[in-house]
Design a protein that fits this description.
The protein is of the alpha+beta class and about 250 residues long. The chain has 8 helices and 10 strands. Bound molecules: 2-(butylsulfanyl)adenosine.
Length: about 250
């Protein structure tokens, strides 16, 4: 997805933007959980952050002194493209953080997407103006973010759900991902209302099944759920392979 093109300035991610391993059934999830408990030598149930896996475009938003300085695509995970001009037009992304104490430099990561409802409208307008229809909301979101003229993005209802922090300077992070979501919300970033912390892999499986059952009712496309070890300290102990963390799994 999205090798860096030539029209946009390239951006090197200080912390690589990783990808996710996938499993397709309950057994795969159980194996994931067993592996984690074995690696950590923990017998008790592990707490996982359970999240929808949004089918959109992964982005990095860099804030310096509370101001949005740069937005970039994930690209190949190491080098992405500068799309600041388009991201500035997304109304739910704060350009300036007004909450009291934010780190002097921090990076928020998340997924930009076009809601289903907005997708139909974008395609109608594209057709009316003699353009081509997009095949799906993800292509429409990606195509919009790759435009040179930000007026195009400004006219389309792009949204974001933020799901992690990247670079953070001079700031003590909380102990869990759940608390990071609270921080992100307090700082004014949209966070998916479907997030939930579940204890033990059976509770995670229930979450996944319930989420997938409600899939048609969501106003955005998902390609499954993501489970992430909730404790950041445990995430650190587990670490990552070259492109995927050991502490997360897509279902
Ligand atoms: S976490 C941990 N959380 O899935 C490293 N990714 O295959 C991965 N995605 O590039 C990022 N929803 O575009 C994460 N709740 C979510 C996500 C999510 C969608 C996408 C993202 C990423 C890809 C990884």
């Amino acid at each position: 997805r999205g090798a860096p093109g030539s029209e946009f300035k390239q951006v090197q991610h200080t912390i690589p933007m990783l990808s996710l391993d996938k499993v397709f059934d309950a057994e795969g999830l159980q194996q994931f959980d067993s592996r984690i408990r074995k690696l950590l030598a923990i017998e008790e149930p592990i707490e996982y952050s359970c999240e929808p896996k949004i089918d959109g475009v992964a982005v990095s938003l860099l804030f310096r002194d509370g101001l949005l300085e740069r937005a970039a695509t994930r690209g190949d995970g190491v080098v992405g493209e500068d799309i600041t001009h388009n991201v500035r037009t997304i109304r739910s992304i704060p350009l300036k953080i007004t909450s009291a104490s934010v780190p002097s430099l921090f990076e928020v990561r998340g997924e930009i997407f076009l809601p289903r409802s907005g997708f139909a409208r974008v395609n109608e307008l594209a057709e009316q103006s003699g353009g081509k229809r997009f095949v799906n909301p993800r292509n429409a979101a990606a195509g919009t973010l790759r435009q040179l003229d930000p007026r195009i993005a400004a006219g389309r209802p792009l949204q974001i759900f933020c799901y992690s922090l990247g670079v953070v300077e001079n700031f003590e992070l909380p102990a869990t991902l759940g608390e990071i979501f609270t921080l992100l919300t307090d700082w004014g970033f949209p966070v998916n209302p479907e997030l939930s912390v579940a204890r033990g892999i059976d509770a995670c499986l229930d979450y996944c099944n319930e989420l997938l059952a409600r899939r048609p009712a969501l106003d955005y496309e998902i390609d499954g759920a993501v489970l992430k070890v909730n404790r950041l300290g445990l995430q650190e102990n587990l670490g990552a392979r070259s492109r995927t963390p050991r502490w997360a799994m897509a279902f």
